[in-house]
Design brief:
The structure holds two protein chains of two kinds. By secondary structure, chain A is mainly alpha-helical. Chain A is built from 13 helices and no strands. Chain B is mainly beta. In chain B, about 10% of the residues lie in helices and about 45% in strands. Chain B has one helix and 18 strands. In chain B, the strands form three sheets. Chain B has a six-stranded parallel β-sheet with strand order 1-4-7-10-13-16, with no helix packed on it. The radius of gyration of chain B is 17 Å and the shape is globular. Classes of the chains: A mainly alpha, B mainly beta. Chains A and B meet through helix 1 of A and loops of B.
Chain lengths: ~280, ~130
């Protein structure tokens, strides 16, 4: 047994000291990889999902119970509704059949009935026709004829004053129309109290003197038509004269507009001249 | 920390030592030692043709010769020779094809107090001093 073998034998049992060389080890080590944030996010997500799964079970159970209750309630409501309909359906059918078989008075004013949820019969053109003349729209008072006469035909002017006079009579009865002429007319009445008898002959004189220039109505429409309409109203309704006073204002307002229309206004100029005879009367409201 | 160079004591054949041999490293003995061989570290190798008349204690013990006494090994014990005595080991034991044992093999722990009489003596000494 030579020395090499003895040395090899001892080397086998010799405890090799542990050498710690930090510098060489650190140099030999590969670069450390950067911490993967995606993995951390994934881990956090896993934890979050785990927590949700833990906390989600009771919520899922509660949601399931709520869903079952909701579905049950809906089904019960449908059943109840269906049963209610089956119970109420014959009544409706009977009512409808009675309504259909019953003689329907077409001329009966349906508007006098109380509001009925189930109309006895469906609306027809007759119903609309019967209601139509009664109903007043916003433009119902507008005289289409007068509007048409302003643009086209002067021959229609003769019919227009009559319609307007009727409308003015209706409108003059309202207290609104009465209040307006109060302020401008009061001095006129006071001033015209003494010369009243003089004013009447003048009007009559004008009326008598004007038939000659009658073929020219457009130049002085006010004076021409006034004597014709005023006596008629005085004879027919003498008690309504105070109410007609506002017509003075109304006609005065309309005197401006017909200047463009070239349509004569009948009652406008005559009434102030007719008023002096009745100035002593008390105004009736 | 530099690795320490391997140090081994060689007792070649034709050598005879009367007394104990105490070492802090390995030893290979091919001679005749009339005494104990005690080593703190390394291998105590009793080579073929070597003979030890006494105890052999070491970190690792390999017996290829003849030992007339007890053998104590704290690590590995390999016997491929002749041993007349008890064998105490703390780690592993390996017996070769030419191993001859005339004694008992016991495995012990490192903290075993082998001689309780010393303890008693120390306690008596402590009591005598007080």
């Amino acid at each position: 047994m030579d020395l090499r073998e003895i040395q090899a034998l001892h080397a086998q049992y010799t405890a090799q000291p542990v050498i710690i060389d930090v510098a060489s080890h650190s140099a030999a080590m590969p670069a450390l990889p950067a911490p993967d944030r995606g993995g951390a996010a994934g881990a956090r997500l896993d934890k979050f999902v785990g927590k949700l799964s833990k906390a989600g079970k009771p919520t899922l159970v509660a949601l399931a119970i709520a869903a079952v209750a909701a579905v049950g309630g809906m089904s019960i409501a449908r059943i109840w509704h269906a049963m209610h309909e089956t119970v109420a359906a014959p009544k409706v059918l009977a009512a409808s059949s009675a309504a259909t078989h019953a003689p329907v008075p077409a001329s009966e004013p349906t508007r006098d009935r109380p509001i009925d949820a189930n109309p006895a019969h469906p609306l027809t053109s007759k119903d609309l026709d019967s209601v139509a003349p009664v109903s007043h729209s916003a433009l119902s008072n507008v005289d289409a004829r007068s509007l048409a006469s302003t643009t086209s035909a002067p021959s229609v002017d003769r019919t227009a004053p009559t319609a307007r006079a009727a409308a003015e009579n209706v409108a003059a009865a309202s207290p609104i129309r009465i209040q307006r002429p109060a302020t401008p007319i009061v001095p006129a009445t006071v001033a015209s109290a003494a010369p009243a008898p003089q004013a009447v002959p003048t009007a009559d004189a004008q009326v008598r003197s004007l038939p000659a220039p009658a073929p020219v109505p457009q130049q002085s429409p006010v004076q021409l038509k006034a004597p014709v309409a005023a006596p008629a109203q005085e004879a027919a309704k003498p008690e309504t004269r105070p109410a007609l006073r506002p017509l003075h204002h109304v006609t005065r307002h309309q005197v401006i507009t017909p200047s463009n229309e070239a349509s004569p206004e009948p009652a406008a100029p005559t009434q102030p001249k007719a008023q002096p005879g009745k100035t002593g009367d008390v105004q009736l409201f | 920390m530099k690795p320490q160079p391997l140090s081994v004591t060689l007792l070649a054949a034709g050598l005879s030592i009367h007394g104990n041999v105490i070492l802090d490293h390995g030893v290979s003995s091919f001679g005749i030692v009339d005494g104990n061989i005690v080593s703190n570290a390394g291998l105590v190798h009793i080579g073929p043709g070597g003979m030890v008349k006494g105890q052999v204690e070491g970190e690792h013990v390999r017996v290829d010769g003849t030992v007339e006494g007890d053998v104590h090994a704290r690590g590995v014990l390999e016997i491929n020779g002749r041993v007349k005595g008890n064998v105490y080991y703390y780690g592993t034991i390996r017996l070769g094809p030419r191993a001859t044992l005339e004694g008992q093999i016991k495995r012990k722990s490192e903290l075993t107090i082998e001689n309780s009489n010393n303890v008693q003596q120390l306690s008596r000494a402590a009591a005598g001093n007080a």
